[in-house]
Design brief:
Distance between the termini of chain B: 42 Å
Strand order of the largest sheet of chain B: 10-9-8-11-12-13
Strand content of chain A: under 5%
Distance between the termini of chain A: 23 Å
Helix content of chain A: over 70%
Order of helices and strands of chain A: HHHHHHHHH
Structural class of chain B: alpha/beta
Number of helices of chain B: 13
Oligomer: heterodimer
Strand content of chain B: 15-25%
Number of strands of chain A: 0
Largest interface: A-B, 28 and 32 residues
């Protein structure tokens, strides 16, 4: 979503900006690392799609490197300790689902929720990013659409068999996303990214994904708003 | 396929509708939630023309609420409109009308600057404000409802409130070119634009609202009434036709007096039932047949396969374009809403 008002001048080198950026950038780097590992795990679970998934995994590793460069460009040290805490719940849920061989639940967490969240956040970030980070992020967001597409296609092909597992994974994980969003609301605001816009873009992207998989508008409205108000 | 982008009239209304439609997740939420809610396609529509041609469309609920403007949440308001447009385009809709406040927000906040929304390049040719058809229908309402009341336009004074707007200026052009209206009173806030309009028409008296109301046999409202303005019915002409073409339509609740006839402006009736659910919730008297003329414009553009932004930009509406859409309107069986038979 493009900025509607002219962006206020952002001082990308101020202490306030760089402090907030250390956590947001940490999250992005950790998120790409998680994604890299999750796709390797999924490649083991879905041997027929091994090549595709390993390719996606490599892309995520490349994204991580791009975002590390963004931090260096602003002389920021990403707060990776904060970031790994930030992802702890989703990380654990993915590991549990993988250990139970629940492919659909793993895809909901990685290919739908994390990818949609990344796409929403990157799209909101691009208009307010510094020039260096903007170019990197624009390249990344294009890739993320293809990752989302992998999950959509698999879940669509297995819709009837996995519908309940998808719904359960949605119920379990979406409230975590809202909580995560609240944790970074203030830092995101410093970067000129508004929570309302992030939530709306996430719901648009996630709703589109659910629709492509085969859910009805009624399901989508229920699922994509699940737990939002309690957050 | 045609599309309509609409919204509900208030938070309370939105909550009620969400409950009616069976969306409890949306029904119990306050304004903060609606500010984050994404657009949804909530209805599929089938329209049959008087010619027998059948077309299909979608209703896109933008989740915009007027309270967003009232509480200065402009970013939310503008996001709703842009996201609804992107949603319509992504779903392959060829021509979509921006209903209610949507086109007003698009214009007032210069949203044409936004050409890309996420992975979509907005194709502005797929959208229409519907204002040409609305202006045409209001003009036909003036011509026909005045006859119902026995008012002779050649002896009548018509006040256009909001004369310099997109619809208001079009109505003035039509009244000047196509009718023999005696006096045309131009009411609006911006004096420069009023003078420009007067120069363009080569006629019309620029006048303050109160004075114009006391002189007019016919009052056309195409701006919403300024806040705090009260109309004293005793200052109006004994027989007065008021066409409420603003949004939201609230004149009828503000003025009730014998001799003052209030007609919802810019509303059409179709000659055949339209298969849709959504109009049941926008307070039309005959939901299966009555609709906003701006919505009907998208239908007409689909019937005619004129997949283009027929109405776009401010003050571009010519009498020729009004005639063109008007002929299409008649051909496909739409007619202007008129006054109920006088008893």
């Amino acid at each position: 979503m493009p900025q509607l008002q002219a962006s206020p001048d952002i001082d990308f080198h101020s202490d306030t900006y760089r402090d907030a950026y250390s956590r947001i950038n940490g999250i992005v780097i950790e998120g790409e690392q998680e994604a890299h590992e999750n796709y390797i795990r999924l490649a083991e679970m879905l041997p027929n799609h091994k090549d595709d998934l390993l390719r996606l995994s490599k892309m995520e590793a490349r994204h991580r490197k791009g975002f590390e460069a963004c931090a260096r460009n602003l002389s920021v040290t990403p707060d990776l300790g904060f970031a790994s805490q930030f992802f702890a719940s989703l990380h654990e849920n993915f590991q549990v689902a993988a250990s139970e061989n629940k492919v659909a639940a793993c895809l909901v967490i990685q290919s739908l929720i994390i990818e949609c969240f990344a796409i929403a956040a990157y799209n909101i970030y691009i208009p307010v990013a510094d020039d260096f980070a903007r170019k990197i992020t624009e390249g990344v967001v294009k890739d993320e659409y293809s990752h989302l597409n992998f999950g959509e296609v698999w879940l669509k092909d297995n819709f009837e068999a996995t519908k309940e597992e998808v719904e359960a994974a949605n119920r379990q994980n979406l409230p975590i996303v809202w909580r995560m969003l609240n944790e970074v609301e203030k830092d995101a605001k410093v970067l000129n990214m508004e929570k309302e816009a992030l939530v709306e873009d996430f719901m648009i992207q996630y709703g589109e994904a659910l629709s492509n998989i085969g859910f009805t508008t009624r399901d989508i409205m229920k699922m994509s708003a699940y737990g939002l108000v309690a957050a | 396929m045609f599309g309509l982008i609409g919204h509900l009239t208030s938070l309370e209304h939105a909550q009620l509708v969400a409950r009616d439609l069976g969306y409890p997740e949306y029904a119990d939420q306050g304004l903060d939630f609606w500010c984050m809610a994404p657009p949804q396609i909530v209805d599929s529509i089938t329209v049959t023309s008087a010619t027998g041609q059948v077309i299909h469309g979608k209703y896109v609920e933008s989740c915009f609420l007027p309270e967003m403007l009232a509480t200065q949440r402009v970013k939310s308001a503008t996001r709703k409109i842009i996201n609804a447009m992107a949603h319509a385009q992504k779903h392959g809709i060829d021509i979509t009308a921006l209903g209610g406040f949507s086109s007003i927000i698009f214009e007032n906040f210069n949203l044409e600057r936004i050409t890309r929304v996420r992975d979509i390049d907005l194709d502005i040719r797929r959208f229409t404000t519907g204002n040409t058809h609305t202006a045409y229908i209001i003009c036909r309402q003036i011509e026909q409802a005045s006859q119902q009341l026995g008012l002779d336009l050649a002896k009548s004074t018509v006040a256009v409130c909001g004369a310099t707007g997109d619809i208001g200026s079009a109505v003035c052009r039509w009244l000047d070119a196509r009718t023999d209206v005696d006096e045309l009173l131009l009411v609006a806030r911006n004096q420069t634009r009023l003078q420009d309009l007067q120069a363009e028409l080569g006629r019309g008296k620029i006048m303050a609202l109160e004075e114009a109301l006391s002189l007019a046999d016919i009052v056309v409202w195409v701006a919403s009434m300024p806040k705090g303005v009260e109309i004293d019915p005793t200052t109006l002409k004994q027989t007065c036709l008021m066409i409420d073409g603003g949004y939201p339509k609230n004149l009828a609740t503000k003025i009730q007096a014998p001799g003052v006839h209030i007609l919802s402006g810019g509303i059409v009736e179709h000659s055949l039932d339209i298969d849709w659910k959504i109009m049941n919730i926008v307070n039309m008297d005959t939901p299966s047949r009555q609709l906003f003329a701006c919505f009907a414009e998208a239908m007409l553009l689909e019937f005619e396969q004129w997949h283009t932004n027929f109405s776009w930009g401010r003050n571009q509406i010519t009498v020729e374009k009004m005639e063109k859409i008007g002929q299409s309107s008649v051909r496909h069986g739409f007619r202007p809403l008129l006054l109920p038979p006088l008893t």
